[in-house]
Amino acid sequence: MAEHQDHAEHHGQSHYVKIWAVLLVLLILSILGPILAPHMEFGFLKAWMITLMTAFGIAIVKAYLVAANFMHLNIEKRYITYLLTTMLMLMLLFFAGVSPDVMKHKGQNWENVAAEAEVERALKAEAAAAAHGEHPGNEH
Amino acid sequence: MSTMTRPIATTRSATGIPTGKLAVWWVIGSEIVIFGGLLASYVMFRLGHPEWAEYASHTNTWFGGANTFVLLTSSLFAVLAHHAAEHGDGKKAAKWLLGTCAGGLVFLCIKAVEWTGEIQHGYTITANGFWSFYYTAAGIHALHVIAGCIIMLIIANQARKGEELHRVELIGIYWHFVDIVWIFLFPLLYIAK
After folding, report:
1. B121-159: per-residue pLDDT in tens?
2. Are A88 and B36 in contact (CB under 8 A)?
3. Which of A 63-122 lie inside 8 A of B, CB atoms?
4. Which of A35, A78, A105, B24 has the largest CB neighbor count within 10 A?
């Protein structure tokens, strides 16, 4: 508890307001990122890379700022950091185990016919709708 | 100290972390797997299905951005409530908690307006895989916002009377987690188009 009280003295209300202001600036950057990305292409730096960085890079920074400063993970016992990290690892393990089956639609000895057919059907429908100037997103 | 009258399980701790707080962290640990599994599945399908990019282009970044602003601000209120509770000011803590709760309500109102428009355009939960994930992920998140608001009202009522002030921090930790989930939902559902 003592370290908590020390923390409260060092981190007054203005500290939290500052963190909030930084979070808002990052939010604005993450919205502007994809809008400005096509104008910022430079050499190997493509628009989609800028969008990925501004969208997910900033999300990670924002999550870190909230966890460290608002949830006080920076002064919390290490036990909690280990607990949360373990859970994140389980999530990555799940992704690593399942994603090959979901993201690939064929392998050496197998083929996901239904997924391939759906991709083909939907892309055709989108192209046809775009030619007619319609929004195809709501077909069933 | 009022700790003398508490049950023994709430006063002893092998980890050095108060029992209530430890419980909240374990809730969050299990929530990471729930939301993490859902979002990881969404990412897999999104990367495996190029046609989803077109579906995703119909979400409204401004609704999502406004809601991010509302949740970040409500998180500030929650940590200010914690700050007040730490200084023994239950009345002030209760006021900040009510502010946080108001943020949750504004979030839900914006979501209601957003969803109404989308459903009217035919983008329903059964329209295609993208919209199924969209409503499931944002819907489970919205349920967490509703649950948080209800718990927050109960804790604000106790804090107002100067009771159980440590609980202000506990609901705050939960609320910041709900905020962090939205911080990831926002780019996944609204920005990556």
Report:
1. 999 999 999 999 999 999 999 999 999 999 999 999 999
2. yes
3. 63, 66-67, 69-71, 76-77, 79-80, 83-84, 86-88, 90-92, 94-95, 98-99, 102-105, 115, 118-119, 122
4. B24
